[in-house]
UniProtKB/TrEMBL annotation:
Organism annotation: Amycolatopsis eburnea
InterPro entries reported for this sequence: DUF6919
Phylogenetic lineage: Bacteria, Bacillati, Actinomycetota, Actinomycetes, Pseudonocardiales
Domain DUF6919 residues, every copy: 12-202
Pfam families assigned to the protein according to its UniProt record, in alphabetical order: DUF6919
Annotated protein name in UniProt: DUF6919 domain-containing protein
């Protein structure tokens, strides 16, 4: 093991090694941004994001959990005097990895918002010595001279590296996912403090719930149950509220409280709702905090299925809980 990697905690190594997909890597990167994982591939072990990144952490974490694996980012900065007495300025920028079709769609959207995009093909598809020649986009100036740039192409060898890539902490499967992803950079060309890029990324993350469900069977299962509960909440006799979760996590910040037959709390369903699935419950009222605390604890998937079987007309049930199943709510 490389000397620097010896300084990565065993818990962090396990987290990164368990990741297999681009989405998995994005989730662990989000945890690193939020300081629940101490090290990240390609960075100094034991160090978190730079102080200038703190205002961006919420957005970057959401973007990573939506499948855009970010490798670098920086906020825009108005010209100002830096630590060395020189005048510095920055462009807001982000770069990372995303499946080709999703990267192309996000790139088109960024261009429509007046942002500059550099989109490279997956490293695994580029022959050796034939890397794209598109230059870096300058993002940081010192006294008018370019100090850093974003958008350079990263070769498969770079990405497999134990020092500057993902090879030191991640499995071969995960590294292959990165090398087969498009390389996307988005830059706001104004050298100033600007929120335009981050607002775009927030909007994009908000819309990724159904796509993430397609990429991740676990999320597909969560989303299906939320869809069924949302349909049940819309029935005439149902009482339903959405409340803040008493113990929120980075993914589950809200809970659906639902009684399909009225207001008797004894038959209530309480289901933690993934952040990406909240738009499914846009028509459900917010609950008073007192009501939320008075109802039962969050229920598991199997408990919810049993309650759905009680309250809804079940058209086809599985032979085991892991089999596909469908229900239809009759109004």
């Amino acid at each position: 093991m490389m000397p620097l990697l010896n300084r990565v905690s065993k818990a962090d190594r396990r987290r990164w090694l368990a990741a297999e997909t681009l989405l998995d890597l994005g989730r662990v990167t989000a945890d690193w941004l939020e300081d629940t994982v101490g090290s990240q591939p390609g960075y100094q072990p034991g160090y978190g994001p730079d102080p200038e990144t703190e205002p961006l952490i919420v957005t970057l974490a959401r973007v990573n959990r939506a499948g855009f694996l970010t490798a670098a980012s920086q906020p825009g900065m108005n010209p100002c005097t830096g630590y060395d007495g020189a005048t510095w300025s920055q462009r807001a920028a982000v770069e990372g990895f995303l499946e080709e079709h999703r990267a192309a769609a996000l790139a088109d959207r960024a261009r429509d918002h007046g942002l500059t995009v550099v989109l490279h093909p997956p490293a695994a598809l580029v022959r050796r010595h034939r890397r794209p020649l598109e230059p870096w986009t300058p993002v940081t100036l010192r006294e008018g001279l370019v100090m850093t740039g974003f958008g350079g192409f990263r070769t498969a060898r770079d990405l497999r590296s134990s020092v500057v890539g993902y090879g030191g902490l991640c499995s071969r499967t995960a590294v292959a996912a990165v090398t087969h992803a498009a390389q996307l950079t988005i830059v706001d060309l104004d050298y100033r403090d600007s929120s335009r890029l981050w607002e775009l990324l927030d909007e994009w993350a908000d819309e990724q719930g159904s796509l993430i469900a397609e990429l991740d069977p676990r999320r597909a299962d969560q989303r299906l149950i939320t869809q069924l509960l949302a349909a049940l909440a819309a029935t005439p006799r149902a009482t339903a509220f959405v409340a803040d979760h008493a113990e929120p996590t980075h993914e589950q910040r809200a809970v659906l409280i639902l009684n399909p037959t009225g207001v008797n709390s004894g038959g209530a369903i309480r289901w933690p709702v993934h952040e990406q699935d909240l738009p499914l419950l846009a028509d459900v009222d917010r609950a008073p905090d007192l009501l939320a605390s008075a109802l039962p604890a969050d229920q598991t998937r199997s408990q919810i299925i049993q309650l759905l079987a009680t309250h809804a007309q079940v058209l086809r049930m599985p032979t085991s809980w892991d089999d596909p199943w469908t229900t239809e709510v009759r109004r």
